[in-house]
Amino acid sequence: MARAMKRLFATASLIAIVIYGSFFLVGTQVVKAAPKTIIVPDDYLTIQDAVDNASSGDTVFVREGIYHVGGTYGIMIDKPLSLIGEDNQKTIIQSNAYIKYGDSSAILITADHVTVKDLTIIGNKYEISGIGLRNGNYSHQPSNCKIIDNNIRNDSQGISTNWFSVNNIISGNNLIDDDQGICEESSNSVISNNTVTGSFMIGIRVDEAENVTVKQNNIVGNGNSYFTANDSGGLSLRWYGPFYVYENNITDNVGYGLQF
């Protein structure tokens, strides 16, 4: 009887230790919320409200329709997330953003690891960028971002990045009738499979960046005889480098086709 009681006590003690240990592990485990998808206008009426209420890693999915944005920053993305349109022909952002301190954009990205995909962005020629990557910390600009499969037109600069930005991808976009199509100041980045046409000044300008690849782009019909040869043309590469340029179609640009 005494032995049985000892065995029972030992078993109960072991169970208590296991249960206590289990509670301890559960109590100290950090549970990370799974990324979620926020739908505009189902969950929030405006894209900015959806972005403001998203968490890092979330997706803001925008249904077909026309969305008007204004102010200095039409839409500001200040956390790592994905902004995805339902159809890049029918999900339209109409910008009335205005110039203030040189920062106005239809979409301003100030965070790393942001993806913007499948949107049409129509500017008013007064904002600086259709999609701009920059923030107030000049030693660290938005990096590791992806700008993919968008239609961007009628901006001062269709897509622009800033110094100290790195590892960005600009791919598959159509840029039409901007003053400058793509203004790349981001090192270790790739510009690929874009179509840039009708730019009033320069189709693609890579400036003050290192290790930039420019491949398989259509750079057609950019530039204007109003400007000097240095300010009008297809693809401009200047300062720093190296640059890796191949398999591009550079045709019918006014001023220069390719300028080093």
Walk me through the structure:
This protein is mostly beta strands and 260 residues long. It has helices at 2-28, 47-52; strands at 37-40, 59-62, 65-71, 73-77, 82-85, 91-97, 105-109, 115-117, 120-122, 129-133, 146-148, 151-153, 157-161, 169-171, 174-176, 180-184, 190-192, 195-197, 202-209, 212-215, 218-220, 233-240, 243-246, 249-251, 256-259. The strands form three sheets. It has a nine-stranded parallel beta sheet with strand order 1-2-5-8-11-14-17-20-23. An eight-stranded parallel beta sheet has the order 3-6-9-12-15-18-21-24, with no helix packed on it. An eight-stranded parallel beta sheet has the order 4-7-10-13-16-19-22-25.
How large is the share of residues in beta strands? 35-45%
SS-based class:
mainly beta
Shape: globular
Helix content: 10-25%
Q: What is the total tally of β strands?
A: 25
Mean pLDDT: 87
Q: Low-confidence runs (pLDDT<50, min 5 residues)?
A: 1-28
Tally of helical segments: 2
Specify Rg, calculated over alpha carbons: 25 Å
What is the gist of this entry?
This protein has 260 residues and is mainly beta.
Give short descriptive properties of this protein.
mainly beta, eight-stranded parallel beta sheet, nine-stranded parallel beta sheet, single chain, 260 residues, 13% helix
Topology:
Layout: H1 2-28, E1 37-40, H2 47-52, E2 59-62, E3 65-71, E4 73-77, E5 82-85, E6 91-97, E7 105-109, E8 115-117, E9 120-122, E10 129-133, E11 146-148, E12 151-153, E13 157-161, E14 169-171, E15 174-176, E16 180-184, E17 190-192, E18 195-197, E19 202-209, E20 212-215, E21 218-220, E22 233-240, E23 243-246, E24 249-251, E25 256-259
